[in-house]
């Protein structure tokens, strides 16, 4: 199974699902030059958000800590610790801030 992100050009294969460790992220360089942070939870569900921390400008969200709050998965930035909902991209600590989310799916490898 591969993890694929929906980008302007269509579905982009990022990596094998088995290459992801639950609770840890990986950074993916996208065709437009931006980065996505890709995660998988313990149930095997993948998530993808923008990798740039909007508070610092650093591309580090893939290095953040994954957790759950009120039944929602989030990643905490490794720099200033703001938490970003992995489904909506909304910052849980500042409702005026959000990061981009990407549609993500798993697909069988041929």
UniProtKB/TrEMBL annotation:
CDD domains in the cross-refs: Rieske_NirD
Domain Rieske: 12-110
Gene3D superfamilies: Rieske [2Fe-2S] iron-sulphur domain
Keyword ATP-binding: no
Keyword tags: 2Fe-2S, Iron, Iron-sulfur, Metal-binding, Nitrate assimilation, Oxidoreductase
Pfam families tied to this protein: Rieske_2
SUPFAM superfamilies, per database record: ISP domain
UniProt cross-references to InterPro entries, sorted A to Z: NirD, Rieske-like_NirD, Rieske_2Fe-2S, Rieske_2Fe-2S_sf
Top-level lineage group: Bacteria
Name of protein: Nitrite reductase small subunit NirD
Originating species: Streptomyces racemochromogenes
């Amino acid at each position: 199974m591969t993890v694929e992100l929906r980008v302007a050009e269509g579905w982009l294969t990022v990596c094998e699902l088995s290459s992801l460790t639950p609770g840890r992220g990986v950074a993916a360089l996208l065709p437009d030059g931006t980065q996505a942070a890709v995660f998988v939870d313990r149930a095997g569900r993948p998530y993808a958000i923008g990798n740039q921390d909007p508070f610092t400008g650093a591309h580090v969200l893939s290095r953040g800590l994954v957790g759950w709050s009120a039944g929602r998965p989030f990643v905490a930035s490794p720099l200033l610790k703001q938490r970003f909902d992995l489904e909506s991209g909304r910052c849980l600590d500042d409702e005026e801030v959000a990061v981009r989310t990407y549609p993500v799916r798993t697909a069988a490898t041929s």
